[in-house]
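This part of the workshop introduces the protein records we will be handling. A learned vocabulary of local backbone shapes supplies the integers on the structure line. Getting from the letters to the tokens is the skill we practise here. As an example, a complete record with its sequence and its structure tokens follows.
=====
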Amino acid sequence: MKDKAEKTLEQLIKCYENDLQIIDGLNEEQKEEIKRDREDMLQMIIKLTSWIHDIRYCSNKECKCSPESNIRIILERNGELFKNPYYLFPVQWKTLFEIAGLEVVK
């Protein structure tokens, strides 16, 4: 699972640095949406990195401080962000759902 997570992390970083940079020609509402998406993507990068390297405050995976819990919160709030098939480097979103303990639904 760690190998899949590392590949997913790579895809998230590429998506953050490329796909979510384009704001030319967007109206203010669209720019705000991209800004929120970028924040969620950045938080996902941080939390997935914590999960890969087992960086955690406590060992309880259900605790609000755990990477798994934080990944779940991001996915529940904005899971569709990670399922976009049109990214230059599409994210292996199923890996994120598995880590978070969420049901994988297309």
About this structure: Residues 72 and 100 are 5 Å apart (CA to CA).
